[in-house]
Design goal:
By secondary structure, the chain is mainly β.
């Protein structure tokens, strides 16, 4: 396109973090197909009314979802917008001089998006305009194009621009999701590492294995995934180049090799290793494979992830008697405990602004996703489901994806970062877990 946690209930459970996760996955319902479905589960009362008018079309358009429909769905899934159904619109303008603001005010709309699509050969060009209904002025006008086979990318791009024009925050609809599915047949398991659009569409299988695949993590440039694979019979960490499919095994020490997390420069990984007898956090230089030990304690230290500065990191430790979130402001600083609200808090995932850290939180025998405000130390439980794990924050900090159960199904659920609106992404059949949200790549 061109433009102009696992859920352990005891400290001992953390020693076998990835083996316990395997047990959870194997116990799930069978079968998984590549593409995810979309299921809106909860709206937000404060959502902004916006009318995405069906775009006018010149030339033969590809079959499938219309670009305006994809934009409408994207804005709905953010939890911040409530698009008007096309059948309720009083008119269908395609350019600014056809917009009658009185009609849109009558319908209670704050914004209206209009556009035109033109096909020339194998190229589709979109001209689109966004209007503030109350102020009766255009706040966005742009042209973008894509190949006929990439209209979903074009639609997500428009969604990003509309989202940013209204909120002032970059949209994340053009980013990707990585996740793991499990298919079981005749007593055999097949694990698939997959990458899709944020709405679950255009999924591609990147790796298949009859052994577990865990903890996918995106490189800062969005071109590589690090993950844990048991394909050799024990956990090892791999780096996978998505364009070529080339894979490199970079950590295969005795014991645990787990929880990879990219450094902000893309040249190093945090990881958990037990090669010296205890689970500790290490930093590995990818090119030289040199290691630097960042924690040194008799307890179990695991699940590291860099903070927004790229200098410090969060991790899970049972040094206080149960799994809790800790933070080191630099590699050599003393750890500071972050969570206190329950006996189990694990798998930290900070936002990009240094305001919040999200994690798995146990309360009354249920596991939820919670967050702590790092300035006020206030803790908020965000989810209403009871078997939640593996949170991942969208790169713009406005949404959160996690794995949970809906009845007998294992699904991915996306919520607004404040715990508001939600939608789920179940596999067409069976089990889907371990979500990871890609960065925004310019």
């Amino acid at each position: 396109m061109t433009n102009r946690s696992t859920k352990g209930t005891t400290p001992t459970g953390m020693v076998m973090t990835w083996l316990l996760m395997l047990a959870v996955m194997i116990g799930s319902s069978p079968a998984a197909h590549a593409e995810l479905l979309i299921r809106i589960t909860e709206g937000a009362d404060s959502a902004i009314p916006v009318a995405v008018v069906p775009f006018a079309e010149s030339g033969t358009m590809p079959s499938g979802d219309k670009i305006s429909s994809i934009v409408r769905d994207d804005l709905t899934m953010s939890g911040e917008f409530k698009p008007l159904a096309p059948e309720k619109m009083l008119s269908l303008p395609s350019k600014g001089d056809e917009v009658y603001f009185r009609d849109w005010r009558l319908l209670g709309q704050r914004y209206v998006l209009v556009g035109q699509l033109t096909r020339t050969g194998d190229k589709i060009e979109a001209r689109y305009e966004l209007y503030d209904v109350n102020r009766e002025e255009r706040i966005l006008g742009a042209t973008a194009s894509s190949s006929v086979n990439s209209t979903r990318s074009l639609a997500h791009h428009i969604s990003d621009k509309v989202y940013e024009a209204i909120t002032g925050v970059p949209g994340a609809f053009s980013t990707k999701l990585a996740y793991v599915t499990l298919q079981r047949s005749g007593g055999k398991a097949l694990y698939r590492l997959q990458v899709s659009d944020v709405d679950g569409k255009r999924a591609k299988v990147r790796l298949e294995s009859d052994e577990p695949i865990l903890s996918p993590a995106w490189s800062p440039d969005g071109k590589r995934l690090a993950y844990v694979s048991f394909e050799t019979g024990k956990p090892a960490i791999y780096i996978h180049e998505l364009s070529s499919g080339n894979r490199t095994r970079i950590a295969d020490f005795r014991g645990l090799n787990s929880a990879p997390a990219w450094g902000p420069d893309g040249r190093s990984l945090l990881m958990t290793l037990s090669k010296d007898g205890n689970a500790e956090v290490y930093k590995m230089d990818i090119q030289s494979r040199s290691l630097k030990r960042l924690t040194n304690h008799w307890s179990i230290d695991t699940e590291p992830t860099w903070d927004h500065t790229g200098e410090g990191f969060f991790f899970t430790s049972d040094r206080s008697g149960g799994p809790q979130i800790y933070h080191k402001s630099s590699e050599s600083a003393e750890p500071r405990r972050i969570t206190f609200g329950s006996r189990y808090n694990a798998r930290p995932r900070p936002d990009n602004d240094g305001k919040y850290v999200y994690y798995v939180h146990q309360r009354d025998k249920a596991f939820h996703i919670a967050r702590t405000n790092l300035q006020t130390e206030e803790e908020t439980i965000l989810t209403r489901t009871e078997s939640d794990e593996s949170p991942s924050v969208s790169p713009n900090g406005r949404m959160l994806i996690y794995a949970t159960k809906q009845g007998s199904d294992s699904v991915l659920t996306v919520i607004a970062a404040d715990g508001g609106a939600a939608y789920s992404l179940p596999a067409s059949e069976g089990d889907v877990r371990e979500p990871a949200w890609s960065p925004i790549v310019k």
